[in-house]
Automatic annotation (TrEMBL):
Ranges annotated as spanning the membrane: 59-81
Name used for this protein in its record: Fatty acid desaturase
InterPro entries the record matches: FA_desaturase_dom, Fatty_acid_desaturase
Domain Fatty acid desaturase: 67-333
Keyword Cell division included in the entry's annotation: no
């Protein structure tokens, strides 16, 4: 039984896939034709709010003791908006049509230790091209976790829950070093020489972020330096935890399918849409929740239409869901608590061997799927 069949979905015929793809194409073209000032005003407004929250947060660190918690809260919101609703979406090219340098996917740099150019390759190209294809999509487990039963098991994976916790806490660092493919270095499939072109960009971005959050802004508050430094670290932690949970709930809860490379050979446009749909999941919530998630609470729509402004995902979600129902395909959605439980269950379940997998005789990291 394939992963698709295990999720309760059916395999579509070639004709059905072509028709399904045509309906998805029609949605995309309709939204592109409708883009305009309302979309531009929205993203400009989000940028303004993000900068306001950052300014308030930085200012409150000058207020001893009582200002610390509000400062952390305000700065956390700023960093979440910067990474989720602005940075992630802008770097997908969702606002390139506006022609504004500050919202250009080619020029935008986010508040994160991962260099934008590096992230655009690993995420925009690798992950969105090869979504949930084992051996191609390196976001399956991020080179650290076992998140699918078709990943060969090794005793290393007994630490799955611990690795997941550490990845959550240090999520921006995990993303930053993702392209170094440490698991491939350990397995001998990649050399240090191949990583050299990445080193300068990572060092430059890490240095910039560390100086900003852990030296410059704390130093500007004078004797309050220690409190400001801890506050900046706390805001980064909040952003990391939030981003990790939203992203994992969109990719790894119960019911999400994976694919083999053989299944995706000579893939048509319709099958690509089909794979994006079954390899993603949504999270229900209100408008504020969707904004704070960068609308990645609509991960299904994001994987179907990664270059459309994310603010449009809620308006097309019901249409996508109705199309799925007509084709007999599951539309995986649920409350945050439900999806989190599904993710946690997978992390714990796949820490243990499954009946049809055997213990690998060599490095566990080497068995992690390769390929954003």
């Amino acid at each position: 039984m394939t992963s698709v069949e295990k999720t309760g979905n059916k395999r579509l015929t070639a004709a059905q896939l072509e028709a399904f793809g045509a309906e998805m194409d029609a949605i995309r073209q309709r939204i592109i034709a409708d883009l305009g000032e309302e979309d531009a005003a929205y993203i400009r407004g989000i940028v303004k709010k993000q900068r306001t929250f950052e300014l308030i947060g930085r200012a409150l660190f000058y207020v001893p003791v009582v200002g610390w918690l509000p400062a952390v809260a305000s700065l956390s919101i700023s960093k979440i908006l910067d990474n989720m609703e602005i940075g992630h979406n802008v770097m997908h090219g969702q606002y390139d049509w506006m022609g504004e340098p500050g919202l250009s996917s080619r020029m935008y740099e986010w508040d994160n230790v991962c260099p934008s150019e590096q992230w655009k390759y690993s995420h925009n190209y690798i992950h969105h091209t090869f979504t949930n294809i084992l051996g191609k999509d390196r976001d399956i487990g991020y080179g650290i976790l076992r998140m699918d039963e078709d990943q060969p098991w090794h005793p290393y994976y007994l630490g799955n829950p611990l690795y997941a916790f550490l990845l959550m806490v240090f999520f921006e660092w995990g993303v930053a070093f993702h392209d170094l493919e440490v698991e491939n270095l350990v397995a001998g499939r990649r050399t240090l020489e191949q990583n050299k072109p990445l080193h300068a960009g990572i060092r430059r971005k890490v240095r910039r972020q560390a100086l900003k959050d852990y030296l410059l802004f704390p130093a500007l508050t004078g004797p309050l330096f220690p409190l400001t430094l801890v506050g900046n670290a706390a805001a980064n932690l909040v952003r990391n935890v939030w981003a990790f949970n939203i992203i994992f709930c969109g990719h790894f809860p119960a019911g999400v399918a994976s694919f083999t490379q053989e299944e995706c050979e000579n893939e048509t446009s319709g099958h690509w849409y089909y794979r994006q749909l079954l390899g993603s999941a949504n999270i229900t919530g209100g408008r504020l929740f969707h904004i704070m998630s960068g609308n990645l609470s609509h991960q299904i729509e994001h994987h179907l239409f990664p270059d459309l402004p994310a603010r449009r995902y809620p308006e097309i979600a019901e249409e996508v869901r109705e199309i799925c129902e007509r084709y007999g395909l599951a539309y995986n959605t649920g409350r945050l608590s439900k999806q989190l439980f599904g993710v946690a269950a997978k992390i714990c379940r796949y820490a243990l061997p499954t009946r049809r997998t055997a213990t690998a005789p060599h490095s566990p990291v080497a068995e992690t799927p390769m390929a954003a």
